[in-house]
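ARCHIVE RECORD
Type: protein–small molecule complex
Small molecule: flavin-adenine dinucleotide
Source of inputs: curated submission
Record status: active
Notes field left blank by submitter.
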Amino acid sequence: LDRELEAATGYRRGGGLRVALDDGEWAGAPAAVAEQRASGVPVELVDGLAAQRLAPGLSPDCPGGIHCPIDGQADAMATVSAFATAARRLGARVEEGVGAAALETANGRIAAVVREDGGREACDLAIVAAGAWSGTLLAGLGVRIPLQARALQMLLTDPAPPRLSPVLSRFAGGLSLKQLTDGAYLIGGGWPALILDEAANRWEVQEDSARGSLEVARAVYPPLAGCVVAERWAGIEAFTPDGLPVLGPVPGTDGLLVAAGFSGHGFALAPVVGDVLARLGLGREPLAHLWSGLRVGRRA
Ligand SMILES: Cc1cc2nc3c(=O)[nH]c(=O)nc-3n(C[C@H](O)[C@H](O)[C@H](O)COP(=O)(O)OP(=O)(O)OC[C@H]3O[C@@H](n4cnc5c(N)ncnc54)[C@H](O)[C@@H]3O)c2cc1C
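STRUCTURE (tokenized, with ligand):
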């Protein structure tokens, strides 16, 4: 991807390790491995010692985990800016700080996007990819997609010496832990923040949530006990009832596509989703086998 975009996304393939902390969690691991392998994902079951070798510092209580050697991590801001810079280089106009207020149709086709600053962009193709705010834009056309906005919280520690290569998560949930290139640990895992104003993208970090997140992270990876949390924030994300995104043409309006409801997994999926949307927009082979189960109006 770095070569294609001619910029650094910060991608590192350090693997992913999903661990158990007790025998109850561990009992479900073989079935999870079998299911993923059947879908072609090259995961393997590792015992506690092997897990310790992959992630030195891991809790000695860990009976084992599932390792996926092709998992990795990238820098979100660097990746977004790499895509935007590449798009500009190819002639795209990227505007920031102005939203789409509404969509206009004529004779069953998309006709224009009305801007929040009062302007109007005539078009014959529009893609609604406005995250948790996509539902509002589509509702103006009478299209309803089942999106629920939730704020997810992140914690970032001060930099520490490099030690953790894979992204760590836990079977029981509540943990996504990675060490960034500057040594800081980024801790997430779906812990909720409070949405103060969804339309204005305002949220508030919750003390009990931050505490719970840190407790789980330290239980799985005790070296975090020596780290200070330097930053806390949240992001508003769109969830669907089945946890899968909504992708593809909007029935009833030619030239209108949607990609929303990524339910916590949209960063990793972005390159392939962009490819599918470009193909749909340009009338090329749309790789339908990848997304036909995600269509608008599926029973979620
Ligand atoms: C804390 C947190 C951690 C996460 N961690 C991971 C992870 O480790 N891996 C992973 O794969 N995913 C992760 N995700 C999920 C991932 O970030 C999202 O799934 C992804 O960003 C969704 O992409 P999107 O383009 O649909 O929406 P967004 O990223 O929300 O982007 C929507 C954009 O549309 C803009 N917008 C809104 N309304 C309008 C309008 N009317 N007109 C124009 N623009 C508008 C918004 O300002 C925003 O820039 C995480 C999410 C959060 C919140």
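CURATOR ANNOTATION: Residues 266-282 form the longest helix (17 residues).
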